[in-house]
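Priority: medium. Attachment 1 of 2:
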């Protein structure tokens, strides 16, 4: 299956996908993309604008995962920065992509973000831990072992996600990168649900042709 992994980060969602898929990952920062390349050597990694790449290449893929930046939507940033008088507009790229995929993309998609400080403008399909999901396929109830990352050390998070950031020179607090990382079990579960739907439709089409 051809998969597009947008805003790939270090690859938390992709960690347990295995090697049977053709994965193209798009990440804006070169230092973060270097971590992804280290762990997923067979993936095609593109350093660039994921939002624009989706618009230009969406039709080339069977499954699309998108995790647009969550900072301007998060409850923690809203509470913290409201007291500091550092308000920002929520980044509407999130909703642009949900609308675009729902109306133009023929495959299966998952858009992931944090549970926001406001009522979502488009009703999500479900919530998993501290994340909410928009998807065009059914995702069964699932609760990851680590649904919240509010405590712990870098060593705890390294073990939890399976990434050792001490190996890399990254121009960002590494604890924040771990916090932003999608739980690998969640990523695998959602992809497995999409594959199950795709396979069931293929089987039905074969039976009736």
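Attachment 2 of 2:
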């Amino acid at each position: 299956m051809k998969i597009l992994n947008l805003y790939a980060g270090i690859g938390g969602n992709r960690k347990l996908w295995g090697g049977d898929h053709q994965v193209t990952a798009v990440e804006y920062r070169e230092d973060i993309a270097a971590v992804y390349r280290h762990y997923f050597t067979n993936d095609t990694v593109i350093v660039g604008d994921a939002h624009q790449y989706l618009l230009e290449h969406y039709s080339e893929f069977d499954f699309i995962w998108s995790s647009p930046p969550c900072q301007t939507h998060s409850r923690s940033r809203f509470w913290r920065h409201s007291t500091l008088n550092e308000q920002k507009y929520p980044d509407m790229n999130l909703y642009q992509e949900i609308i675009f995929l729902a109306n133009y993309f023929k495959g299966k998609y998952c858009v992931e973000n944090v549970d926001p400080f406001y009522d979502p403008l488009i009703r999500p399909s479900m919530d998993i831990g501290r994340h909410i999901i928009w998807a065009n396929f059914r995702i069964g109830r699932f609760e990851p072992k680590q649904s919240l990352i509010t405590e712990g050390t870098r060593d705890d998070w390294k073990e939890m996600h399976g990434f050792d950031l001490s190996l890399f020179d990254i121009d960002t607090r590494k604890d924040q990168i771990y916090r932003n990382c999608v739980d690998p079990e969640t990523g695998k579960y959602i992809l497995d649900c999409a594959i199950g739907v795709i396979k069931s439709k293929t089987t039905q089409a074969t039976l009736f042709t």
